[in-house]
């Protein structure tokens, strides 16, 4: 039983990271229906920004996170301006290919600029272990930190989207771009803001990934990015609580499969579950079934 | 005329712009590639001996390929500074195979048939090497791989015959696993072992299999075996299972990135057991990722130790540090050795003809290399001692050297 | 009119025959270097992949990201048949392709009712499942891959299969079935209202695409000596999609030109070592920005268009 609880706890921390990345994914998707494949790479750049802030400038963790968020936001906005905006009225696939191109560029540019080595992310926060039930269950302070940050970030995002003026504008743009424009909303600015916020979230996820796993690497965003995208779809893409639910579900499923069955079958199993969920509920766990209008 | 026929002149203009951009970019790229790419490519072909360097410089395993390349380039630089070989300079031609098998084959084909190399170095991974092997066999160019450990690289599994033109500077899985098992049983007195290997990597898998065989052959017991994937980041569930299975040693024949995380996560969970690994551990990053304290009571088998006091090793470490600013890992050392070995073979052959180089390579006896004194056996695998390294407060300490008893 | 058609077909056939024998001769005399020959095979494989994926994405409008999965099925089944069981190349290729097509039906039936990105992610998942399963099967070499495959695929095979793929898909598109597929792309509900069995046609297009992806896989396996699960990762699916979008969704000739162009660019950039993927990515972004509809949009390059472009007044262009 304690082992089961331990696995759940491990799954929750893994799921938190997926959820955090998925939040940014889902937000961008919700507003412009673009699968931003470069999201994982924005995360990577954020992690490296924090890394250099700490090792070169000697910044503390909070300053490093702020720097990472600024760097990633700028990158996200620039990517949107340069690579996505000219294609806004073209087919969605063209943007998708451009996104893949941006992702390739950042990965390989990262390999050239940052080098091919795995770098150790400085352990700026003490990782304390809290033991329960005679040490059979361990929770680390990193796990608590990651979980808390993810919950707080989700609440902030939910607040921004539901309660603020910018959020209202985002929802309007997401609903109908042209109508939003007619209502006096500056669609371009709103999309830029969306990218900035989404990318800032990615930066936080990047720093947490670096802390949690100790390493950063130019290709570090690839797999977590893909998994987070799966998580977003699982929960119902475009929905903030969906990203949250999908992230946790994915994280817990993964740790359960590796803990009770075999790590080797983890990925195939996770994707089989994904397909089954989509077959049963085509719009994701929390997605509402939309009737197609004729 | 044409525009009118299509009625879309604007589009055509745009199209012309794209073509223009393309041309400019290509030109820029080519200029940057030749000028700033760090590849000393002399255009004059008569006075140089061309050697192909086919490595994984981008993609997921870029770190192995680029370190090996660094070692190779350092060696060729030294050799050229000392006057080259047979009165000619060595001209390394570096190409990236992205860690993809068909790219490795394409690169090998181009290097051999268009660039006219006399010997082929690479690749780092077994998959890419196996893709280059048929090409080198077809065109009769000697191939020297630095880290492809699969036995099938030098021996055709169907006929059991040694591939005439294929050699390697690294030891293969069985001797390394045998030495590891010997050390675990006799030196660390381990009796029950759990094995945790990288399931997506044939090198790691091969070691796991061979270790299990060797360890059970000398009387030990394997209580649990589990694989992890290359994208796994969370090893806590499996580690929890291992400690429940009653293991007194965990064998982790993987690469340092994951191993470091496995060990630090194990220590986090309060698992204090000794860990034993293999040459994939060798990287300064192991310490910075796992933490010096966590690594106490861990050991690994390796090609060489940068703390080896021998003059050859220390000179290499010094030169490498000076050029690249870091301590060379095994990949760099093996690459460095491979470059010297090829040049040594050319010298011994007295000719830079592929056929002569191959003959000389096959007869290599007691070649003094950074990674040990090397001779090739009849399967073109090197026979050399294996170093066992203990991690003490974040420092690699040469514990002992053992020859495999098989 | 029929007579013109006939002459046109004769002309096309003659051109193809000339190309076939010319390349055959050039290979035999060694004028085409081994490296160029290798790229010729890559071009062929890429054409088959692009054209077959275009049927699914470009003509039927279903965004699928699992093409590498079908390719892997074709490659592994055919390679196992030739290396482990000793079946000749042709039946092995067909078996591999049929297995891929079957897989297409099995995967297509439940998932093709998903729309847009949900279908994309489901097919992406399928590709990853295939790869994950292959890694776990020791019989086919696991992660290390299947080695020791004979290089059975020669120029005649490559030419034959590339030609068959293009001709088959071209004729399919021009048939009633193909029209039904295009109708689904344009408006699925309207198509259904017109009495088109949308599920049937989507699955049909999907399995035909999968069949030819399987062929591409078989050719790949029997030219490159070894296959590894990681060769058929999501990146391979992206590569195929890239060719389709780059050439123009719904343009077969666009796909062909894109396959040739991208393969050549990749080969040209090879000398740049590390820098080449950066340049490749930049090129990709720039081209998509300047040409979002792809090289040809939905247009086709045909003999008629070529004549017009030359400004010619030959008889069949004069109207």
Estimate the helix proportion of chain A, in percent: over 70%
Percent of residues of chain A in beta strands? under 5%
Radius of gyration of chain C: 20 Å
Class per helix and strand makeup of chain A: mainly alpha
Greatest interface by residues involved:
B-C, 51 and 44 residues
User: What general form of chain C does the structure show?
Assistant: globular
> Could you give the count of β-strands of chain A?
4
Largest sheet of chain A: 2 strands, antiparallel
Give the CATH level 1 class of the largest domain in chain C: Mainly Alpha
And the CATH topology of the largest domain in chain C?
ABC transporter involved in vitamin B12 uptake, BtuC
Principal-axes shape call of chain A = globular
Order of helices and strands of chain C: HHHHHHHHHHHHH
CA radius of gyration of chain A is: 19 Å
The rounded distance between the terminal residues' Cα atoms of chain C is 11 Å
Can you walk through the features of this model?
The complex is a heterotrimer of chains A (294), B (406) and C (319). Chain A has 294 residues and is mainly alpha-helical. Chain A has 11 helices and 4 strands; from the N terminus they run ααααβββααααβααα. Chain A has helices spanning 2-32, 39-55, 61-84, 92-114, 141-163, 165-175, 177-182, 187-213, 222-235, 240-260, 266-280; strands spanning 119-120, 129-132, 137-140, 215-216. In chain A, β2 and β3 (137-140) form a beta hairpin. The longest helix of chain A has 31 residues, at 2-32. Chain A is globular and about 65 Å long. Chain B is globular and about 65 Å long. By secondary structure, chain B is of the alpha/beta class. The longest helix of chain B is centred in the first third of the chain and has 27 residues, at 9-35. Chain B has 2 domains: 48-170 and 310-370, Response regulator (Rossmann fold, 3-Layer(aba) Sandwich), CATH 3.40.50.2300; 173-302 and 387-402, Rossmann fold, CATH 3.40.50.2300. Chain B starts with a helix and ends with a strand. In chain B, α3 (62-81) packs across α12 (330-349), α9 (256-268) packs parallel to α10 and α12 packs across α13. Mean pLDDT of chain B is 84; it is low at 1-15 and 24-44. In chain C, α2 (34-59) crosses α10 (234-247), α3 crosses α9 and α4 (89-111) packs antiparallel against α9 (198-221). Chain C is globular, with a radius of gyration of 20 Å. The relative contact order of chain C is 0.16. Helices cover 73% and strands 0% of the residues of chain C.
């Amino acid at each position: 039983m304690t082992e089961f609880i331990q696995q759940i706890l491990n799954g929750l921390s893994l799921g938190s990271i997926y959820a955090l990345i998925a939040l940014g994914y889902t937000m961008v998707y919700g507003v412009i229906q673009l699968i931003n494949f470069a999201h994982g790479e924005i995360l990577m750049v954020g992690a490296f920004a924090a890394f250099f802030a700490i090792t070169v400038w000697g910044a503390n963790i909070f300053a490093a996170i702020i720097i990472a968020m600024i760097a990633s936001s700028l990158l996200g906005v620039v990517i949107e301006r340069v690579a996505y905006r000219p294609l806004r009225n073209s087919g969605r696939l063209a943007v998708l290919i451009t996104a893949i191109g941006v992702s390739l560029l950042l990965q390989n540019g990262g390999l050239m600029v940052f080098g091919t080595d795995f770098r150790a992310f400085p352990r700026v926060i003490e990782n304390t272990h809290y033991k329960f039930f005679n040490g059979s269950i361990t929770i680390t302070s990193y796990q608590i930190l990651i979980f808390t940050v993810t919950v707080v970030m989700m609440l902030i995002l939910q607040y921004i989207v539901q309660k603020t003026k910018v959020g209202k504008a985002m929802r309007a743009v997401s609903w109908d771009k042209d109508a939003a424009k007619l209502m006096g909303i500056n669609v371009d600015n709103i999309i830029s803001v969306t990218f900035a916020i989404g990318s800032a979230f990615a930066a936080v996820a990047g720093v947490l990934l670096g802390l949690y796993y100790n390493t950063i690497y130019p290709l570090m965003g690839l797999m977590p990015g893909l998994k987070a995208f799966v998580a977003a779809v699982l929960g119902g893409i475009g929905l903030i609580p969906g990203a949250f639910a999908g992230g946790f579900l994915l994280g817990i499923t993964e740790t359960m499969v590796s803990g009770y069955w075999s790590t080797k079958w983890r990925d195939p199993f996770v994707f089989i579950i994904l397909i089954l969920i989509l077959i049963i509920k085509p719009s994701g766990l929390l997605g509402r079934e939309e009737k197609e209008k004729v | 005329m044409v525009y009118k026929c299509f009625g879309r002149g604007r589009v055509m203009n745009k199209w012309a712009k794209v073509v223009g951009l393309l041309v400019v970019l290509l030109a820029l790229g080519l200029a940057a590639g030749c000028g700033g790419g760090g590849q000393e490519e002399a255009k004059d072909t008569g006075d140089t001996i061309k050697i192909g360097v086919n490595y994984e410089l981008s993609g997921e395993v870029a770190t192995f390929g680029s370190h090996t390349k660094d070692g190779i380039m350092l060696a060729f630089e030294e050799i050229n500074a000392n006057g080259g070989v047979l009165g000619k300079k060595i001209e390394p031609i570096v190409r990236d195979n992205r860690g993809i098998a068909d790219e490795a084959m394409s690169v090998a084909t181009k290097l051999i048939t268009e660039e006219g190399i006399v010997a082929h170095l690479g690749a780092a991974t077994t998959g890419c090497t196996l893709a280059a092997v048929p090409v080198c066999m077809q065109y009769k160019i000697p191939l020297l791989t630095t880290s492809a450990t699969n036995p099938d690289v030098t021996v055709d599994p169907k006929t059991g015959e040694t591939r005439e033109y294929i050699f390697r500077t690294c030891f293969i899985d069985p001797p390394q696993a045998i030495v590891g098992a010997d050390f675990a049983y006799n030196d660390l007195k381990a009796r029950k072992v759990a094995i945790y290997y990288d399931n997506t990597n044939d090198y790691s898998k091969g070691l796991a299999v061979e270790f299990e065989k060797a360890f059970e052959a000398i009387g030990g017991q394997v209580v649990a075996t589990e694989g992890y994937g290359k994208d796994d980041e969370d090893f806590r569930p499996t580690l929890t299972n291992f400690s429940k299975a009653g293991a007194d040693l965990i064998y982790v024949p993987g690469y340092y990135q994951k191993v470091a995380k496995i060990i630090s996560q194990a220590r986090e969970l309060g698992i204090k057991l000794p860990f034993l690994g293999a040459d994939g551990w060798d990287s300064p990053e192991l310490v910075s990722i796992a933490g010096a304290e966590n690594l106490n009571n861990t050991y690994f088998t390796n090609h060489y130790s940068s703390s080896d006091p021998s003059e050859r090793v220390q000179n290499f470490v010094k030169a490498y540090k000076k050029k690249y600013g870091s301590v060379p890992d095994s990949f760099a050392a093996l690459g460095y050795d491979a470059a010297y070995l090829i040049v040594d073979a050319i010298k011994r052959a007295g000719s830079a003809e592929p056929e002569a180089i191959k003959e000389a390579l096959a007869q290599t006896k007691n070649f003094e290399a950074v990674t040990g004194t090397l001779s090739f056996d009849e399967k073109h695998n090197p026979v050399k001692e294996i170093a066992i390294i203990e991690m003490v407060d974040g420092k690699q300490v040469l514990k002992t050297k053992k020859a495999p008893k098989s | 009119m029929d007579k013109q058609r006939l002459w046109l077909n004769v002309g096309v056939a003659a051109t193809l025959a000339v190309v076939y024998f010319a390349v055959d001769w050039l290979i035999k005399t060694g004028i085409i270097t081994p490296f160029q020959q290798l790229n010729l095979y890559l071009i062929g494989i890429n054409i088959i992949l692009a054209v077959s994926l275009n049927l699914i994405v470009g003509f039927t409008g279903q965004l699928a990201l699992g093409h590498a999965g079908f390719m892997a099925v074709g490659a592994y089944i055919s390679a196992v048949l030739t290396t482990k069981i000793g079946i000749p190349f042709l039946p092995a290729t067909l078996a591999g392709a049929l297995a891929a097509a079957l897989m297409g039906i099995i995967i297509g039936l439940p998932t093709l009712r998903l729309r847009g990105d949900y279908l994309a992610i489901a097919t992406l998942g399928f590709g990853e499942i295939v790869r994950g399963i292959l890694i776990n099967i020791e019989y086919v070499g696991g992660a290390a891959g299947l080695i020791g495959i004979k290089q059975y695929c020669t120029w005649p095979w490559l030419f034959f299969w590339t030609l068959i793929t293009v001709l088959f898909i071209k004729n399919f598109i021009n048939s009633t079935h193909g029209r039904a597929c295009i109708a689904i792309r344009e408006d699925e509900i309207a198509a259904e209202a017109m009495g088109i069995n949308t599920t049937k046609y989507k699955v049909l297009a999907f399995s035909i695409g999968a069949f030819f992806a399987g062929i591409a896989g078989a050719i790949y396996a029997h030219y490159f000596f070894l296959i590894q699960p990681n060769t058929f990762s999501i990146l391979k699916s992206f590569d195929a999609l890239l060719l389709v979008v780059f050439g123009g969704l719904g343009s077969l000739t666009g796909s062909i030109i894109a396959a040739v162009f991208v393969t050549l660019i990749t080969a040209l950039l090879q000398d740049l070592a590390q820098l080449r993927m950066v340049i490749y990515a930049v090129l990709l972004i720039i081209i998509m920005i300047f040409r979002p509809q792809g090289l040809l949009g939905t247009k086709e390059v045909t003999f008629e268009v070529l004549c017009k472009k030359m400004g010619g007044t030959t008889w069949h262009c004069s109207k």
